[in-house]
Amino acid sequence: MKHLILIGILLLGACEPHETKKGAQSKIHLLYIDTSKYAILKFNSKNDSGLFDNRCKPAILTADDIDQIEKIIADTVKGYNNLIRKNNQNYNLGYSFINRPDNYYKQFITVTNLQGEKEVWVNCFCYNYLKANGQDADYWKKGIIRVNDGGNCFFQLKINLTRNVLKEFNVNGLA
Fold first, then answer.
1. Over the chain (175 residues), what is each successive 10-residue block's mean pLDDT?
2. Quick check: is 35 in a domain?
3. Is-contact 110 118, C-beta < 8 A?
4. Quick check: is 134 in a domain?
């Protein structure tokens, strides 16, 4: 029992705020990257040039970056859902809400752009797609999932992490 209490105290201490190089306080929310729902794909200037300028360089994505990305996704989806709610009161547009974006699987491609800033492209898709697809369970961790249509089960964002700015947001259409 004493060992469990000691381990608990040590774990709590590991999550205390720490000093960054700029002297600001921050908390670590993710101690590791959960690869059961996240796939970090390396930027390939030949294959992924439609996502970024082909002169961009691959960059490393950290757990703190993912915290930042998840917050931007939550804020963006909230705004999107509010817009859909408002517009559907006046028109039957056929758009659907995005529910629980934290439950979506996500693919990340991270680069350093030509201005030296870190940017990330995020591809989000729901579990039903993986369940319905007959390929091996980890194929989505090896390459970009691209589909036509699919509605709110698929959405993408491009984020400038350095400036904490959403650059693009897209929700797939319906067939």
1. 34 35 40 78 83 93 94 95 78 72 93 97 84 70 83 91 96 77
2. yes
3. yes
4. yes
